[in-house]
Write a structure and sequence with these properties.
18% of the residues lie in helices and 39% in strands. The protein has four helices and eleven strands. The longest helix has 13 residues. This is DUF4468 domain-containing protein. It comes from Lacihabitans soyangensis. Keywords: Signal.
């Protein structure tokens, strides 16, 4: 087989998700708890859910009365894959980074400072879609900072984090001393919510 064709097929399989059924806990906007089996896009090659392909709706499996759930109907969707908890919440962003205003994202850390993971479908002419991944720090006051994920190299300097962390000098000091790696986003967000929780 031609080497270029082989590489193209490999890349296509890496950027194409199949689907897998997961037993999920769904919290509706009315506060009801539903146990539904949902069709979650899944990377077979990478062996993990593909959050970016969920977008604004999820298909319901094995249920005659509910066919799908949308971002407008629920507060959260939670499921477990290989011991890892996935907590999806609907988010609506109004900034230049986002083309679709409301969609499901993965909530990694909740609190005064939220840490959100998402990926977006990008289509180029005559090419399979790609799903660039992002980490977003989101403050309740609307301040945010977005970092693209590329081989886990996302933050090059503390200055990039000061937009959302600048009011937490204790955390900035820890980052400057190297006590917390700049790319350990989960620890950074948790430390902010622990040290500098807004009152």
């Amino acid at each position: 087989m031609n080497f270029k064709i082989l590489i193209l097929l490999l890349l296509t399989s890496m950027t194409t998700a199949n689907a897998k059924g997961f037993d999920c806990l769904v919290i509706t906007n009315n506060g009801d708890s539903l146990k539904l089996r949902l069709d979650i896009p899944y990377f077979l090659l990478l062996d993990r859910p593909k959050i970016g392909e969920i977008e604004d709706k999820i298909r319901v499996l094995d249920n005659d009365s509910i066919k799908k759930i949308t971002v407008k109907e629920v507060k959260s969707v939670s499921f477990i894959d290989k011991g890892e908890v996935y907590h999806l919440v609907p988010k609506c962003f109004a900034d230049a980074y986002i083309s679709k205003s409301c969609f499901f994202v993965r909530l990694l850390v909740d609190g005064d400072l939220q840490l959100i993971y998402y990926s977006l479908k990008v289509r180029e002419f005559k090419k399979p879609p790609t799903y660039p991944e992002y980490i977003r720090y989101q403050r309740e006051n609307g301040d945010f900072q977005v970092f693209p994920l590329f081989f886990n190299k996302t933050v090059k300097s503390i200055e990039q984090l000061k937009k959302v962390l600048g009011d937490c000098p204790m955390l900035i000091e820890k980052l400057e001393k190297g006590e917390i790696p700049l790319d350990d986003h989960i620890k950074i967000a948790k430390e902010y919510n622990s040290l500098c929780k807004q009152r």
